[in-house]
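We give the chain.
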Amino acid sequence: MAFPREELEGMVERWAEAGKAAERTSDWGAALAPFYAPQAQCRVHIGADQVYVGRGAASIAREMLGEDMEGFEGWTYPHERVVIDEHKGEVVVFWRQTSPHVRSDGTPYAVCGLGTSFLRYGGHGQWIYQEDSFDLGQVKALLVELAADGKLSPPLKQRIQRMAWGKTASGYEREAHALTPLKKLRGLTALARVALLGR
């Protein structure tokens, strides 16, 4: 659905400012929940096997903006690039995930590469759909580096411990095309054969 470009630009600007406020207070739900329509849907892909699915603004605020941000207090997510398609009412935001810590050489501990948010606007200052993607391998690499340097906060340590025991935040589901253990084993065996024998 088409919308005036000025309306979409204003929406992105207000959403970005609300995100900055959430970074300061660590209350992402209060800052960003008003930007989602009551019937909004959200998907966040976590590796190859899991996807967060939020159905409705209330669940998105409670889960994605609440439980799923626990442990990342003080982290920032600056927007690096924004692409707006006013003819379709869609926006793509490229963002960077940065920890509050700085290395000895003065560079921030940040996830390599950019995450993306694909958003569909529904009018009235609210998104009706969001889909996020990021490089889980790079996030894990940064967490390993933070752990090695003694920079993990107590809440992030608790989150990692919960995840190690299979306790994810609410709203996570198995990806529709996630491999079964048997198929994953068959695939790894086939790849090993290719690596060793070239066939």
Notes: The mean pLDDT is 92.
